[in-house]
Design brief:
Blueprint: H1 25-53, E1 56-58, H2 60-65, E2 67-70, E3 77-81, E4 84-93, E5 97-103, E6 107-112, E7 116-119, E8 126-137, E9 140-151, E10 157-159, E11 170-172, E12 175-177, E13 191-193, E14 210-212, E15 222-224, E16 227-229, E17 243-245, E18 251-257, H3 264-275, E19 280-290, E20 293-307, E21 310-324, H4 326-334, H5 339-353, E22 360-365, H6 367-378, E23 384-391, E24 396-403, E25 409-412
Parallel strand pairs: 1-3, 18-19
Antiparallel strand pairs: 2-9, 3-4, 4-5, 5-6, 7-8, 8-9, 10-12, 11-13, 14-16, 15-17, 19-20, 20-21, 21-22, 22-25, 23-24
Helix pairs in contact: 3-6
C-alpha cells in the first residue's frame, strides 16, 4: 500500500486554503472627506444663523442725525440712547400701518404710513425719539428713527357745559386745549349718555315794561315820543302814549325894519331863539336900490322847532313893492317922459312884482349855521346863490341853494 506523505495534502486551516480580500483603503478616504465637508457646512450655517439672529444695533451718533431702518419679521433692532440700550420690533403689520414694541420700558404703539410719533422712553417729561413710518414694502416696514429732546406739552383742556339732554338720550360739549399741544391723549369725552325728560313749559304772562324818551317839540299842536318795551313782550296792552296835544309857545319878536336902529332888538330876539331853535316869529322888511329903482320886500320869518336834528326855518313873502327914486324920475323927465308915464311904468313894475307875494321856502339848518346866517343878515351881509329849474307844464320849480343856504335842506316855491 502506498502511503502518501502527510505534507502532500493541503492543510485546511492554512491561509492557502481560504483566499484573503485586501482592505478598502480608498473608500474610507471618500467618507472622511464627506463627513468633513458636512461638518464645515454645519459650522458655517450655525455661524450664519448666530450672526443673523443677533439684533442690529444703531449707535447714538446715527440716531442724532436720524436713520432709516428696515424691521424684518419679528427681529429686534437695538439702539443706544443716553448710554442705555433699547430695542424695537414689529408686533403686528397691516397694509398701511404697523404696531411696534419698544423696550426697555415696554411701549406698544401703532403707526400709519406717513405718520410721525414722538416718545418719552424714560418718563422724564421730555420726548427722546421721533419715529416715522416711511413705507411698507413686501411686508417689511421702513422706519425713520431720530434722537430728539423736546419738552412734552401738557394738555390743559377746558370744556363748556353739557348741552341739554336730547331725545336720543345724549348730550354733548366742546373742549379746547388751552396749551394747544396738538395731542388728544388726555382729551375729555365730548358725548355722554343721559336720561331724557320731556320738558313741560309753563308760559308765564309777559309783563310789559315800557321805557319812553322825551317828548318832541310841539308841532302842529302835537308832540310825539318813542317808547320801547324792555321785556319785549310783543304786546301793547299797557303801552304808554306816544302822542299828545300841545300848545306851541311862540316867541313873537315883532317887526324889524332894515336900517332902523330901534328895531335891532327885535332881530336879536329872533337870533337868540335860533340858538336852541325855540319857536319864534319875526316880520322883517328890507329895501334895496338898484339903478334908481327902490325895491321893498316884507318877509315873515318863523322858527318851527327841530326836525331830524335840524332847525326848521320858514320864510314867506308878505309884500313886494317897486318905486322910482327921485333922481331916476328926474332922468326920465329929462328924457321926455311925463309924470303920468313914469307913474304908469312904476305901477306896472309893482304889479309884476306881486307874483312873488305868498311865495315861501322852508329850510332845515344846523342850529349853529342858522344862527350865524341870521347874524350876518342883521348886519346887512347877504350871500344868496339860488339855481332853479322851471317845469312850465307842471308849474313847478326845483331850486338848489348855495351861499347863505349852503348845507341846508330847502323846499318851497321860491
Amino acid at each position: 500500500m502506498n502511503i502518501m506523505a502527510l505534507d502532500e495534502y493541503p492543510n485546511q486551516e492554512s491561509e492557502s486554503y481560504y483566499p484573503q480580500t485586501p482592505p478598502p483603503k480608498k473608500s474610507i478616504k471618500i467618507w472622511l472627506f464627506v463627513l468633513l465637508f458636512i461638518g464645515i457646512v454645519a459650522v458655517g450655517l450655525l455661524a450664519f444663523l448666530f450672526f443673523n439672529s443677533s439684533p442690529k444695533t444703531i449707535s447714538e451718533d446715527k440716531l442724532l442725525n436720524g436713520i432709516n431702518t428696515e424691521l424684518k419679521g419679528t427681529e429686534e433692532t437695538k439702539f443706544m440712547l443716553y448710554d442705555q440700550e433699547h430695542t424695537i420690533a414689529v408686533d403686528a403689520i397691516d397694509n398701511d400701518s404697523v404696531t411696534l414694541i419698544i423696550q426697555s420700558n415696554p411701549i406698544r404703539i401703532a403707526v400709519s404710513i406717513g405718520e410721525e410719533r414722538k416718545l418719552d422712553l424714560n418718563d422724564d417729561g421730555i420726548y427722546d425719539i421721533q419715529l416715522k413710518l416711511i413705507t411698507i414694502k413686501n411686508g417689511i416696514p421702513n422706519l425713520f428713527i431720530k434722537k430728539i429732546s423736546e419738552k412734552i406739552c401738557v394738555e390743559n383742556w377746558s370744556c363748556n357745559d353739557w348741552t341739554n339732554c336730547t331725545i336720543y338720550s345724549n348730550q354733548t360739549r366742546t373742549c379746547s386745549d388751552l396749551n394747544s399741544c396738538g395731542t388728544t391723549k388726555d382729551k375729555p369725552v365730548l358725548v355722554q349718555t343721559c336720561t331724557y325728560v320731556k320738558e313741560v313749559k309753563v308760559i308765564a304772562k309777559c309783563l310789559e315794561n315800557w321805557n319812553c324818551g322825551n317828548w318832541s317839540s310841539c308841532a302842529n299842536s302835537q308832540q310825539n315820543r318813542t317808547c320801547v318795551d324792555l321785556n319785549h313782550c310783543n304786546t301793547t296792552e299797557n303801552k304808554s302814549s306816544i302822542l299828545q296835544s300841545c300848545v306851541v309857545q311862540v316867541i313873537d319878536c315883532g317887526t324889524n325894519i332894515q336900517n332902523v336902529t330901534e328895531n335891532i332888538p327885535n332881530y336879536d330876539c329872533f337870533i337868540a331863539a335860533s340858538i336852541n331853535c325855540d319857536y319864534a316869529k319875526l316880520l322883517s322888511t328890507g329895501s334895496v336900490d338898484v339903478f334908481g329903482v327902490n325895491v321893498t320886500a316884507t318877509s315873515k320869518f318863523e322858527l318851527q322847532g327841530m326836525n331830524s336834528n335840524r332847525c326848521v326855518f320858514y320864510q314867506r313873502m308878505e309884500n313886494y313893492s317897486v318905486k322910482f327914486m327921485d333922481y331916476a324920475v328926474q332922468q326920465f323927465l329929462a328924457q321926455g317922459m311925463n309924470q303920468s308915464e313914469i307913474d304908469g311904468q312904476e305901477q306896472n313894475m309893482t304889479a309884476n312884482a306881486q307874483q312873488f307875494v305868498g311865495k315861501y321856502r322852508t329850510c332845515k339848518f344846523n342850529k349853529e349855521n342858522l344862527t350865524a346866517t341870521l347874524t350876518r343878515w342883521r348886519d346887512g351881509i347877504f350871500n344868496v346863490d339860488v339855481s332853479c329849474t322851471l317845469d312850465i307844464a307842471a308849474n313847478t320849480s326845483n331850486c338848489t341853494t348855495g351861499g347863505d343856504y349852503a348845507g341846508a335842506e330847502c323846499f318851497g316855491d321860491y
